[in-house]
Amino acid sequence: MLRWAHVMILLAGLGLLLAVVLEASNHRQWQTVTPPDLLDPQPMDGKAPPFALADRANRVHTLAEFKDKWVLLVFWATWCEPCKEELPHLATMAMKFANEPFYLLMVSVDKKFQDIDAMASQLRKQAPSSDFPKAWEAASVFISTDGPNFITLLDPDAKLAHKYGTSLFPESYLIDPHGMLRKKFIGAKPWGIKEAIGELETMMTGKVE
After folding, report:
1. Structural domains present in the chain
2. Is the distance from CB of 146 to CB of 17 less than 8 angstroms?
3. pLDDT score of 4
């Protein structure tokens, strides 16, 4: 019964995220973190550091299990305001790539998942922006419910973040299907807008229609 309830919550959450994707295409005012250079990636070339991190169900995930997929590894924290601004964009982008060989790993450096759940609850109660409240509702679902191509993991001592060279948040890393680091993104990015998604598409093999 509990498993069925979880499935229903997940489906409802994914439906909400999909609605946000469709609505975002008609609401250009929802661009809270749009710098002139958009994603502004830094090139990288080297093996991505391996990891073994737990999700909210205490299942351990490793980089090896995402072999043959592109991975966007995002280091963030609930106390980081730019990270918060980035969440609706990441939710939208994840849904855009839902049918592609792509996985979004949200690695939080918070101490426990209860911190993330508290933030999600706050987003549902009071959206930071009244211009696009559904985006923040979707963001709350996004960080509290794992989906078909996105998952939240915990790095409570920031050991993995430091191994990747991250000390300021958010920072993101694009890893290719062979486990090689390809791009680094410093700061919050407008992942959810059409132009940014187009930039990310060109960095990866294949295209999203």
Report:
1. 2-203 (3.40.30.10)
2. no
3. 43
